[in-house]
Amino acid sequence: MKTTPLSRPALLLSALLMLPAAAQQPAAPAPAAATQAPPPALSELPWEAPALQPFTATYQAFYKGKEAGDAVMTVTHTGGAQWRVDMQVIGRRGFASVLGLNLEQSTVFENRGGQYVPLSQSTVRKGLFLGKKVTGTYDWQAGTARWQGDLKKERTQPIPLQPGDQSALLLNLALMRDARPGQSLHYRYVDVGRVRQHDYQAAAETENVAVGELSYNALRVHRTNGGNDETILWIANGVPTPVRILQREDGEDRIDLRLIEYQGV
Q: What is the rounded average pLDDT of the residues 37-64?
């Protein structure tokens, strides 16, 4: 296991990337012979989709533009074709925890030839005045998914599955796998007793994205059919997780996760 610091040494983890891809600004090269060609510019590098790999990423969480806590995303290889992805958002400041920012989600899935197939899902939401727990199973042999727990009755009914169905967390990994400059992406979201179509559009070119004291050369990917609910991700070339995830409602920022640290193999 190696740790790649990307910001201040006081931070325990640092930006969800390996250092060469994450910093996006190479260190000053050592003096070279006059005949040595300069390194290629970032814009000249081919786009490289990240391979599925274990990692732990730490994000700084903002709620409505104000710092509100932390988030940790973890991908674990549990053996054979089976993997697990977890996301924990912890509201530590202001009214974030009261408003239900504390959230834990996980999905167990299989990597079947590059396709991510969900097997089970759980969501736990905590707050001063609320607490909800929901678990779900994707039964591919029976061809249905079903959830139980703190849900409305209509959302506990079985949902017919289709090839390619994704959970909320798997959508993040699928976007990392599939996004290319200028490409349109389409997924069927099946999670917590609901089915939704998620369509995304990747920008034609990468852009500079500031996250804290760092700047990344990243591809902007946004959901095109969310109505008043917007989801935008920024993906750095060859990196296994988004450097920023932004959720907006009615044109205003709601939850904003900004990568600050990464630990991987």
A: 72
Statement: residue 31 has pLDDT above 80: no
- Which contacts (CB < 8 Å, 24+ apart) does range 176-183 have? 176/49, 176/50, 176/235, 176/239, 176/240, 176/241, 176/242, 177/49, 177/50, 177/52, 177/114, 177/116, 178/49, 179/49, 179/219, 179/221, 179/235, 180/47, 180/49, 181/47, 181/205, 181/206, 181/219
Structure confidence at residue 9 as a pLDDT band (50, 70, 90): very low
Task: Identify which has the larger pLDDT, 189 or 12.
Answer: 189
Task: Evaluate whether 93 touches 65 at the Cβ level (below 8 Å).
Answer: no
Q: Please, what is the Cα angle at 235 between 232 and 238, to 5 degrees?
A: 165
37 pLDDT more than 50: no
The alpha carbon of 8 is separated from its chain's Cα centroid by a whole number of angstroms, namely 23
Cα–Cα distance between 73 and 88 in angstroms, integer? 7
* Residues in contact with 110: Cβ distance below 8 Å, sequence separation at least 6, in sequence order: 81, 82, 83, 116, 117, 119
Cβ neighbours around 13 below 10 Å, total: 20
> What is the rounded average pLDDT for all residues in the chain?
80
Q: What is the rounded CA–CA span in Å between residue 77 and residue 75?
A: 7
Question: Residue 101's pLDDT is what?
Answer: 61
Number of H helices, E strands in the chain: 2, 16
Judged by DSSP in three states, 149 sits in: strand
What's the rounded Cα separation, in Å, for the pair 231 and 221? 8
> In this predicted structure, what is the pLDDT of residue 214?
77
Average pLDDT over residues 236-242: 83
